[in-house]
Amino acid sequence: MTTPAAPEAPLARLSLNTATTKAWTLEEALDGAVRGGLGAVGLWRDRVHEVGLDKAARLVEASGLRVSSLCRGGFLTADDDAGIAAALADNRAAIVEAATLGARELVLVVGGLPASSAPGGPALPYPAGDTTGAPDADPARDVVAARARVADRIADLAPHAAEHGVRLVLEPLHPVFAADRAVISTLGQALDLAAPFPAETVGVVVDTYHVWWDPDLQRQIARAGAEGRLASYQVSDWTLPLAADALLSRGHVGDGHIDFATLTRWVAAAGYTGDVEVEIFHQGIWDTPGDQTVATLAERYTRHVLPHLG
Amino acid sequence: MTTPAAPEAPLARLSLNTATTKAWTLEEALDGAVRGGLGAVGLWRDRVHEVGLDKAARLVEASGLRVSSLCRGGFLTADDDAGIAAALADNRAAIVEAATLGARELVLVVGGLPASSAPGGPALPYPAGDTTGAPDADPARDVVAARARVADRIADLAPHAAEHGVRLVLEPLHPVFAADRAVISTLGQALDLAAPFPAETVGVVVDTYHVWWDPDLQRQIARAGAEGRLASYQVSDWTLPLAADALLSRGHVGDGHIDFATLTRWVAAAGYTGDVEVEIFHQGIWDTPGDQTVATLAERYTRHVLPHLG
């Protein structure tokens, strides 16, 4: 069998996120990454749970690949006791899974407004009879309070993450997802939330799809590097028109509007030396044979990202 | 005939943007706003051009309504001489139109990436044969350069606006539109672009649909007030799922996820005493009889906005 990319190999820092080759099992994704000459994989928990944690850990170890991240924990915005307890239990389990898999970085998608976190969740019209004016505090719409709960949950989870040598990696999501998936919308906001905690316990991820538009991005990437919190660099492209489900609207690097040369130089200038993970949710890519997708990732990475990694 | 709302009337600060009642001509929109008891209208240039500028000005004056804004100028990101000249000519014309209509505030949607400003513009794959790596400066994707051109065009237009007593009002658009409609994505960025110019010449608009998600919003609204640049407050709601065309994905105030109580209090605390304009692009609302839409605007404004205007 082939072996993973050596440190000096051209694709040594390229990581296949299992969400990109959705049709592949964990074992198929590991084999495909090795076959493609990649150095790492980013794992989603569903692929891990399918085979069981211990077997997944053995498969990963046998592959010789690094695990650049485990996706994902989070969904921390619940405002009821049961929801908070369930979120903490799930994230504590994710921390143990990351440690067992040898994944240093656990990516957290922190969740949207409490009553609307279901993807495509319904709008929440006020009762037709209500003419009393909007309540001063409307929990279903109070994004400020939802963000405060995220800060509280990170404080709850940080000691557990530190015990297991896992870093909680806060992911700012594109503001198109602010209502239903993540109330963290900018890298600066993620760094502010991380600030109270040690850099080895709470970090941030730069996902080009989510942050490319941010006028403050260069400064915040430099800040993330200076603070030692730049935990992951994920690449995929912003394509138009949006897919019916915006979540599935990403494209291969180079197919959209993102300036990967500039963003990659900013990330490199911030001192990032880790893996470059490709995570694309896109039906057309999911319908493509995995080896072909991996070959496209490698070709686009080599053309648009690698020359600028320094 | 009825007369417009007196200053103390409950709807005196409510403004109907003509884009909300798209099926109405200018005259129908003016009559409908007066019939509904509103104090102002926001005008789109297409409605004005249909009847001609001079007649439009007479109709507006006869209605007794204030013109809370003229929409819109902008699209300033062209990087070729012909495109720049065309943008300057169109915006100079818009400034004259605003002055003639008695509109103090000319809203500018500044445009997206140069080669992709067409709504739903195509993605821009690199030539399949190109294996030379992404160019260091890719004009079609260089959002930093596009923003710099917007600053240059504002400097070109500001003297003309000042001569005519019109204010250029920079509109931050939701980042979902950063590639194809506006490279200004946050209120803070708009205020930074406005900073070199007098507050009476370059201002900003707070449109709840575009900025509600911004973690820095309260601070930037206060800053806009302190700098005397808070030129317009526009309200519509963020509803999910997104419409196929994200531009048409807005809803009536109260039908979505935005906390109007809190945002309106922030705007009032910043010293804003102007009109509250309702601008909604939504096929279902366009298919509704105009008087019914105006009645809904009034009811939602009275319930969710007015109580918090102070």
UniProtKB/TrEMBL annotation, chains A, B:
<feature type="domain" description="Xylose isomerase-like TIM barrel">
    <location>
        <begin position="49"/>
        <end position="289"/>
    </location>
</feature>
<dbReference type="InterPro" id="IPR013022">
    <property type="entry name" value="Xyl_isomerase-like_TIM-brl"/>
</dbReference>
<protein>
    <submittedName>
        <fullName>Sugar phosphate isomerase/epimerase</fullName>
    </submittedName>
</protein>
<dbReference type="InterPro" id="IPR036237">
    <property type="entry name" value="Xyl_isomerase-like_sf"/>
</dbReference>
<dbReference type="InterPro" id="IPR050312">
    <property type="entry name" value="IolE/XylAMocC-like"/>
</dbReference>
<dbReference type="Pfam" id="PF01261">
    <property type="entry name" value="AP_endonuc_2"/>
</dbReference>
<keyword id="KW-0119">Carbohydrate metabolism</keyword>
<dbReference type="GO" id="GO:0016853">
    <property type="term" value="F:isomerase activity"/>
</dbReference>
<keyword id="KW-0413">Isomerase</keyword>
